[in-house]
Structure of Concanavalin A-like lectin/glucanase:
Amino acid sequence: MSASSPISHAVVSSQETLSGPFKVTAATETDIWRKPPSHDVLNAPINYTHIADTTTLSSATATFYLDSKTWTKLYDQAGIFLYFPATKAWIKAGVEITDDRHTRFLSTVVTLGDASDWSIYPCPPITRFEEIVNSERKIEVRASADKTGGLKIEVKVQGGEWLVIREITGVFAGNQELEKEGVWVGGYAARPSKEGGDLEVRFDGLKFESK
C-alpha cells in the first residue's frame, strides 16, 4: 500500500513515471518558504514520489530547463524538492532569480526547523549570442546521501562540470521517525510574484540511484 501524500495539493507519481518527461506549472503567488514569526508558505506545485526506505537511497537527480524567455519575475524558481513528513522539514535546490536584473543563481533552501536557510551560488555565465540561439539551459540537480546521514547538493549547467553548492549535515542521522515515514522526492516550480501569469517548467525527469 502506498503512503498518502503529506502535502494535499502535490501530485503523487511513481518513480517510473517521474523518470520520464513532465511539466510543472506554477501560478503566481506560489512559493516554498518559512520565515519567522508567521510566514510559512508551501503552496507551490510539486510532482513527487515516496521513498519508504531512506537507507537504500544513494542519490536523486532532477533534470529541468531554465528558459530565459519565461523566467522573467523576481524569485522565479524550480528544481528538486525533498519533504520529510516526520518532522515537516524540507529541502529545495535548483535555480532562482534573485534580483530585479534577472540574475540567476544556483540556490538551496534548507528548512529543518522553524526557519528556512537560503544559500546561493553563481550560475555559470552564458553569452548573449548563446541565449538568442537557444533560450533554454539544461539544469541537473543531484542530492546525494553520505555515510554520516547528510546530503550533498550538486548542480550541473548545460552539460558542464558538477558543482557542489551545499552540504547539509544530520538530515538522516539517528532519526527513527524519519526512517519510519521515509522521504518524498520530486520536482517543483514556483512564482512568488503577483504578476506574470503562470510559469511552466519542463523536466526531463528524475533519476534515483540506490546504494
Observations:
- The helical segments are 15-18, 128-133, 176-181.
- Residues 84 and 183 are 5 Å apart (CA to CA).
